[in-house]
From TrEMBL:
The gene is ruvB. Has 3 domains, the large (RuvB-L) and small ATPase (RuvB-S) domains and the C-terminal head (RuvB-H) domain. The head domain binds DNA, while the ATPase domains jointly bind ATP, ADP or are empty depending on the state of the subunit in the translocation cycle. During a single DNA translocation step the structure of each domain remains the same, but their relative positions change. Gene3D superfamilies: 1.10.8.60, P-loop containing nucleotide triphosphate hydrolases, Winged helix-like DNA-binding domain superfamily/Winged helix DNA-binding domain. It comes from Ligilactobacillus pabuli. Residues 241-320 are annotated as: Head domain (RuvB-H). Transmembrane segments: none annotated. Residues 168-238 are annotated as: Small ATPAse domain (RuvB-S). GO terms for molecular function: helicase activity. Its EC number is 3.6.4.-. The lineage of its organism: Bacteria, Bacillati, Bacillota, Bacilli, Lactobacillales. This is Holliday junction branch migration complex subunit RuvB.
């Protein structure tokens, strides 16, 4: 009898990312057989694809403790020493947004990862002295939105590097059906499919939309979520049939109206729509590129004909 929670606990329960699961299952089995910690793992890819969830699954499958933190939360070398000190041999330390570690923390991570020790200077001025901390052998699992954001020396210390992919509609349907079971909510396969279609390949989005649709279904006294109520709710939420929301459409429309569809720089786009450049780079652009609505060129980003068609804009009409 396994307790069902929104986050899967085992590789078998984890939906999608088939290639990664297949590889990781081998590394886990091999490490367990040798009674060694798993090699350090780097997971990279867009937000919401289940990097933290997968890290937790790996810890569970390795039967070790799972400790989580994030790059910005570790402000100084001493913070990292404190975290690593609490680990038992084989435990997993998960660092989300690992590209945002302060430089001086990143530098002490090198010896921690490679040889399981940390040398830091304790005290100030006359009392300053180096201290050598041996560490238990541990596994670092790092997550980042783009592998290119990591420095080369840090990236080189991960023995296992996995690129998370957007989920297919069929995979997301399975995620939605599974989550509906966890929420004790009835949904039919076409309803699940419609949520999946509009979730931009991202389980976090699918689960959020499922919750909102469930609210609409409940208030409408529907005992079952079907395609009709999904359509109604998501149209109200202005999530279109490609999963684009107001922000996505505003971005494409801004590029078209102000820059004739590009080429235009990322920071310029971000400033014009009132978003952080990092938000545009990590959350908006990757999906629009994935569905072929935007492309990258040497001179900047461009809107594609497919995006014009989707927005119902004639590409020749507003050319200068
Ligand atoms: N919930 C979020 N991501 C999931 C996944 N990949 N498999 C199962 N449930 C999930």
């Amino acid at each position: 009898q396994t307790e069902l929670s929104l986050r899967p606990k085992t590789l078998t329960q984890y939906i999608g990312q088939e290639k990664i699961k297949q590889e990781v299952a081998v590394y886990i089995e091999a490490a367990k057989t040798r009674e060694e910690p798993l090699d350090h793992v780097l997971l990279y890819g867009p937000p919401g694809l289940g990097k933290t969830t997968l890290a937790g699954v790996i810890a569970n499958e390795m039967e070790v403790n799972f400790k989580t933190t994030s790059g910005p939360a570790i402000e100084k070398p001493g913070d990292l020493v404190a975290l690593l000190n609490e680990l038992r041999p084989g435990d997993i330390l998960f660092i989300d947004e690992i590209h945002r570690l302060p430089k001086n923390v990143e530098e002490i991570l090198y010896s921690a990862m490679e040889d399981f020790y940390i040398d830091i200077v304790v005290g100030q001025d006359a009392t300053a002295h180096p201290v050598h901390f041996p560490l238990p052998p541990f596994t670092l699992v790092g997550a980042t939105t783009r592998a290119g954001l990591l420095s080369a020396p840090l990236r080189a210390r991960f023995g296992i590097v996995e690129h998370m992919q957007y989920y297919t509609e069929a995979e997301l349907s399975q995620v939605v059906l599974r989550s509906a079971t966890v929420f004790n909510t009835r949904i039919d396969p076409l309803g699940a499919r419609e949520i999946a279609r509009r979730s931009r390949g991202t389980p976090r989005v699918a689960n959020r939309l499922l919750k909102r649709v469930r609210d609409f279904a409940q208030v409408a006294h529907k005992e079952m979520i079907d395609q009709e109520i999904v359509d109604y709710a998501l149209n109200l939420l202005q999530v279109d049939n490609q999963g684009l929301d107001e922000t996505d459409r505003k971005m494409l429309q801004t590029m078209i109206n102000l820059y004739n569809g590009g080429p235009v720089g990322l920071a310029t786009i971000a400033a014009n729509i009132g978003e952080e450049t990092e938000t545009v780079a990590d959350m908006l652009e990757p999906y629009l590129m994935q569905i072929g609505f935007m492309k990258r060129t040497a001179r900047g980003r461009m809107v594609t004909p497919a995006a014009y068609a989707h927005l119902g804009i004639d590409p020749h009409k507003n050319k200068k």
